[in-house]
Specification:
With 506 residues, the protein is of the alpha+beta class. It has 11 helices and 27 strands. The strands form 6 sheets. An 8-stranded mixed beta sheet has the order 18-8-9-16-15-14-17-19, with no helix packed on it. The protein has an 8-stranded mixed beta sheet with strand order 26-20-21-24-23-22-25-27, with no helix packed on it. The chain has a 4-stranded antiparallel beta sheet with strand order 1-2-5-4.
């Protein structure tokens, strides 16, 4: 791995949660910025009482964000009120002030020193009122702290909670010094269009860990733009969006095509040289393979064996995967155990070979990586190919080692269509007799034959499944004719159903 520059590397090192101030603290809002600036220069006699928070307090004093009490004290161990939290969040994160009286709030007066700060958070939807009360003088709990900073930053709550825990925030009370550390960390966690790569590390043959000087903007993290921003030499390519690791400031999981072990790669970002790294020969350790339909099989990995799907450890999925989500440290360890990270399976392929037959290339089925609660991405045979019952198949891959790499195909009955309902002139809801899980719905199509003999095709809308029902959308701009009845059939033998019809009401 290489650092882009010592200067930028220092920025990231300072931002690392484990090695820098990581939380922020409340302030005395009565002191003016001028008074505060002089006090910051002179110092406060009790700053060091805050221990690890001293550096963060000094930083916020210099910024004019945090103030002392005018008597030589900054009180790093004093409890924080909701009003103080509001002031520090608004000023520390540079939120636009909105001093309008929040609708329905009964305990916020315009003559209070904290009015504009509390009103701003309320008007932004960052601070919530309960029964019309914002309770500005109430002490801040850890849960409130996490919620408010996460909303203000537009960052996942799991990361903010991790930062808060890292500085020792207790559930029922937040200290000024702790809040100071959290605000300093939050300042570093603000996205920047000028973010630069400072470190690149190959985790395995299909996964990079890339650290930036600041988090990426939503625009730069979007797929189309990200594919333009990242470029590699020696035939390597990025295959999906960079995903921010939960708990990190600006470290991303980046999926690539398989790297060549020992090859030196150069990475450019937005047209500028951004670092070099050596291709990893480490393959993902998969446990087994198994058939799931007449043309689809899965490759299984296990969390218990130290292999985690990236969806468990990235910010974007930390809420949806609450049951399996966790935070890896900078060494990709959790509770003392090191984890291998499987990045996105997008565009990944494996080779499946029937005993005594010709190898075939099976392609990953989108959105089946771990969405059924298991780390078991699905792979589908080429169009027209089927798994023949009684035949032994062996699966191999250039990016994975598979401990139990064979399965004997068996006859698996197609899914059964129970009903179809037109949602509008371009989509319908198809319901099966049982929940198929997404590995069987994904990338499937149905045919609709009208009473006049004309045919339409509708394709499954990815991730639309709710239990046994999924949405199918007409292709090529086709429309259902109101009042016309259509007979519904699967476009391939993935599903059956007799007498299934759909009619768009006039």
């Amino acid at each position: 791995m290489n650092f882009v520059s010592n200067k930028v590397a220092a920025i990231v090192l300072a931002a690392a949660i484990g090695g820098s101030a990581a939380a922020a603290g409340p302030v005395n809002v009565w002191a003016s910025s001028g008074v505060q600036a002089k006090a910051a220069a002179a110092g406060f006699q009790d700053i060091n009482d805050g221990g690890a928070s001293a550096a963060a307090i000094q930083e916020l004093l210099k910024q004019g964000v945090m103030n002392g009490y005018g008597n030589g004290l900054v009180k790093p161990n004093a409890a924080v009120s909701r009003a103080e939290l509001a002031k520090l969040v608004v000023t520390g994160l540079g939120l636009p002030v909105n001093a309008a009286q929040p609708a329905g709030v009964t305990d916020l007066s315009a003559d209070k020193w904290y009015f504009q700060y509390v009103a701003t958070l309320a008007n932004l939807g960052v601070m919530q009122a309960e029964d019309g009360k914002l309770k500005p003088n109430a002490p801040v709990t850890a849960a409130e702290l996490t919620d408010i900073i996460a909303k203000a930053l537009k960052r996942d709550a799991a990361s903010v909670k991790y930062w808060a825990n890292s500085v020792g925030v207790k559930p029922q009370s937040v200290k000024r010094g702790e809040l100071a550390q959290l605000v300093v960390t939050s300042q570093k966690a603000k996205p920047s269009a000028d973010a630069e790569i400072v470190q690149v590390k190959a985790l395995n043959t299909i996964t990079l860990e890339v650290t930036f000087s600041a988090p990426l903007t939503a625009e730069d993290a979007a797929l189309e733009q990200a594919l333009k921003n990242f470029s590699f030499n020696n035939g390597l390519s990025m295959l999906n969006v960079p995903q921010l690791k939960t708990g990190s400031i600006s470290t991303y999981i980046v999926p690539t095509s398989p790297q060549k072990a020992g090859t030196n790669y150069e990475l450019a970002y937005k047209g500028n040289a951004a670092g070099t790294f050596t291709g990893s020969g480490e393959k993902i350790e998969m446990s087994s393979v198994a058939q799931v339909s007449y043309d689809t099989f899965e490759a299984v990995s296990e969390l218990s064996k130290g292999v985690t799907d990236y969806g468990n450890v990235i910010s974007a999925y930390s809420v949806g995967r609450a049951a399996t989500a966790f935070v890896l440290d900078e060494n990709n360890q959790y509770n003392g155990k090191t984890y291998e990270i499987i990045s996105s399976m997008r565009a990944k392929q494996v080779t499946v070979t029937p005993e005594g037959g010709t190898p075939m290339i099976a392609t990953y089925v989108l959105f089946t990586q771990a969405t059924d609660g298991r780390q078991a991405p699905k792979f589908r045979l080429p169009d027209g190919e089927v798994l023949k019952p009684g035949v032994k198949y062996t699966v191999s891959s250039e990016w994975a080692n598979i401990a139990s790499s064979t399965f004997v195909a068996k006859e698996i009955a197609p899914l059964e269509i129970e009903s179809a309902k037109a949602l509008n002139d371009s989509s319908l809801e198809l319901t099966l007799t049982a929940d198929p899980k997404d590995e069987l719905f994904a990338v499937r199509s149905i045919e609709l034959t009208s009473t006049d003999g004309s045919k339409l095709t509708a394709a499954y809308k990815l991730t639309s499944r709710k239990g046994a029902s999924g949405i199918f959308e007409l292709t090529n701009g086709a429309k259902l004719v109101a009042g016309m009845t259509y007979k519904v059939n699967a476009a391939a033998p993935w599903a059956t159903g007799d007498g299934i019809t759909v009619t768009l009401a006039k």
